[in-house]
Amino acid sequence: EVQLVESGGALVQPGGSLRLSCVGSGFTFSYWYMYWVRQAPGKALEWVGSIGGNSAVKRYADDVKGRFTISRDNDKNTVYLQMTDLKIEDTAMYYCAKGDFNGPRGQGTQVTVSS
Question: Which pLDDT does position 56 carry in this prediction?
């Protein structure tokens, strides 16, 4: 059974930083692209970025490019999302997803950016 567990969300001020983590189990983690997606209240699910199995390929949505960095540690079955220069509009529930934007997700971790 695929399981994904996100953590690291918090309340942070604009301009602050956070690092989210997602631990996967129940599948061969290193084989799969991993995605970070987010959903703000009342809005559709939004792609944030993705990373290939060997980290050679990383892609980001335009509105987070230069501020967010995705990385992974396949030995720990973990994918990370380092977020810097956070903006109020980054407030959302953040999920990691296996293999696809609409792939299996965890329960999410809440990021709230507010002064």
Answer: 87
What is the token pair recorded at 36? 């970070």
Taking CB atoms within 8 Å and a gap of at least 24, the contacts of 4-8 are 4/95, 4/96, 4/97, 4/98, 4/104, 4/105, 4/106, 5/106, 5/107, 6/94, 6/95, 6/96, 6/106, 6/107, 6/108, 6/109, 7/109, 8/109
* Number of alpha carbons in the 13 Å side-chain half-sphere of residue 64: 25
What's the average model confidence in pLDDT over 92-113? 96
Q: Tell me the per-residue pLDDT of 28-86, one tens digit each, with 9 for 90 and over.
A: 999 999 999 999 999 999 999 999 999 889 999 999 999 999 999 999 999 999 999 99
Structure tokens at 21: 């983590």
Instruction: Say whether 12 sits in a helix, a strand or coil.
Output: strand
Nearest to 106 by CA among 24, 51, 20: 24
